[in-house]
């Protein structure tokens, strides 16, 4: 009885001591102080208004970009197009995950664990139940076997390095898994073993917030979308985009060779670009979680309005990111990589693409917002969209419209397409040798002008 009384007194004291910090006032829940962190390789684009559309003469007479004053919120944007090196990081992560998953599944089917060596060293982490946390044990006991394969949600062992040298494979089971990742021997040549890139698929889910917000019925799960797609760039675009043209060296080397690491990735569809954004968000937030930090906002493709605002670099009414109206500087140098002088590709010192940090950046410190490669945006293309989109953070998003806006012009385009107000489009499932992308991230809070 005495112990019970003491416990009650201690509990009441604890409650009163917690309340004493607020002194009975409404002070709100005290969270951690939030300090915005500038993402690596990005620039802060401050909020602002601008005249979107063709303020200069519409030489092509397409009549799809009437001027309209719009306002956009602050956001971060990659200072360059996503490079081959950066996209390869995505591809290698997917390859690593698929390989480890296949090894773990076979080890599980064989009943092998870390103590058995060989492929057992790559077993799911829950294979050794003595090292499971209470949460992991609960999930294993209650949710094991759920999902399409029955292995969803089980943690991979990423502490053990993968072995790629065939002479060092630990056992026949490991060999079986690794061999399944390569193209058949009859399809290889020159003695090269090549990964079957059609097996490099990225699976993710996302929630259709706009559909959910406008719906009056249905549960949350009705608006969760599942995506799975091949993520390796289509290198054949260098051949298919141009008839009667010799471009095999670009097909063979452009994506994977170190000589092109800092060049913009191409051959990536709008859908693949969106998958990259999802992976980049997951990759960053996995690291944030491991450090006990708050999650960051998602990375995504820019809206058409955000892209044009960023491309203008704060220059009101400019024809190009550097202002204009000319594409040649006062020293006689071309300001971007495009097709000048009636088709002289080499006149601007580049035949195809150039490194992502080439030419001078605009006043927002963004490189190649004109030329080099055209860039995917998140917006769907509608010739009349400027007439109906909002004046605040406008976005012509339409899931049913497969035509997606591309901006900026490319190495194979004439100067008209380099203009910051010129609109063009391509289909979401298409990949081209002249289309790449860059990502953005929303800025949380009210930005500091010194940030």
Automatic annotation (TrEMBL):
Q: What's the name of the protein?
A: Gliding motility membrane lipoprotein
| Sulfatase-modifying factor enzyme-like domain: residues covered | 42-440
Q: Care to name a GO molecular-function term for this sequence?
A: formylglycine-generating oxidase activity
The organism's superkingdom is given as Bacteria
What Pfam families has UniProt attached to this entry?
A: FGE-sulfatase (PF03781)
Does the keyword Signal belong to this entry?
Answer: no
Q: Does the keyword Lipoprotein apply?
A: yes
Protein keywords: Lipoprotein
């Amino acid at each position: 009885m005495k112990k019970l009384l003491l416990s009650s007194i201690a509990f009441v004291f604890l409650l009163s001591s917690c309340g004493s910090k607020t002194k009975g006032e409404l002070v709100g829940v005290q969270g951690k102080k939030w300090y915005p962190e500038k993402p690596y390789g990005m620039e802060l684009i401050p909020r602002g208004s601008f005249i979107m559309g063709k303020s200069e003469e519409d030489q092509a007479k397409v009549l799809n970009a009437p001027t309209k004053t719009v306002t956009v919120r602050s956001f971060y944007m990659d200072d360059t197009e996503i490079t081959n090196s950066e996209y390869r990081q995505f591809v290698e992560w997917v390859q690593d995950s698929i390989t480890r998953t296949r090894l773990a599944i076979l080890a599980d089917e064989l009943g092998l664990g870390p103590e058995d060596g060989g492929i057992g060293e790559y077993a799911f982490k829950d294979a050794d139940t003595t090292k499971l946390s209470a949460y992991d044990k609960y999930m294993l006991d209650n949710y094991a076997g759920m999902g399409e394969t029955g292995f969803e949600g089980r943690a991979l062992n990423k502490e053990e390095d993968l072995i790629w040298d065939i002479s060092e494979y630990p056992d026949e089971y490991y060999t079986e898994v690794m061999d399944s990742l390569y193209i058949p021997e009859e399809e290889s040549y020159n003695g090269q073993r090549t990964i079957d890139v059609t097996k490099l698929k990225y699976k993710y889910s996302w929630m259709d917030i706009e559909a959910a917000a406008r719906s009056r019925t249905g549960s949350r799960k009705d608006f969760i979308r599942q995506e799975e797609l091949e993520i390796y760039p289509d290198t054949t675009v260098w051949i298919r985009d141009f008839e009667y043209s010799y471009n095999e060296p670009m097909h063979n080397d452009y994506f994977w060779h170190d000589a092109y690491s800092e060049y913009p990735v191409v051959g990536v569809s709008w859908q693949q670009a969106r998958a990259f954004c999802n992976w980049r968000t997951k990759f960053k937030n996995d690291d944030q979680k491991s450090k006990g930090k708050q999650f960051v906002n998602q990375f995504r493709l820019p809206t058409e309005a955000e892209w044009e605002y960023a491309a203008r670099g704060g220059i009101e009414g400019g024809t190009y990111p550097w202002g204009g109206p000319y594409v040649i500087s006062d020293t006689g140098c071309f300001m971007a990589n495009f097709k000048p002088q009636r088709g002289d590709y080499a006149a601007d010192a580049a035949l195809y693409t150039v490194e992502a940090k080439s030419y001078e950046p605009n006043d927002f410190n963004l490189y190649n917002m004109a030329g080099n490669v055209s860039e995917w945006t998140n917006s769907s293309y509608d010739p009349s969209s400027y007439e109906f989109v909002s004046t605040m953070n406008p976005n012509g998003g339409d899931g049913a419209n497969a035509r997606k806006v591309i901006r900026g012009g490319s190495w194979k385009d004439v100067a008209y397409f380099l203009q910051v107000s010129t609109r063009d489009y391509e289909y979401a499932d298409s990949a081209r040798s002249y289309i790449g992308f860059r990502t953005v991230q929303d800025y949380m809070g009210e930005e500091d002008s010194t940030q």
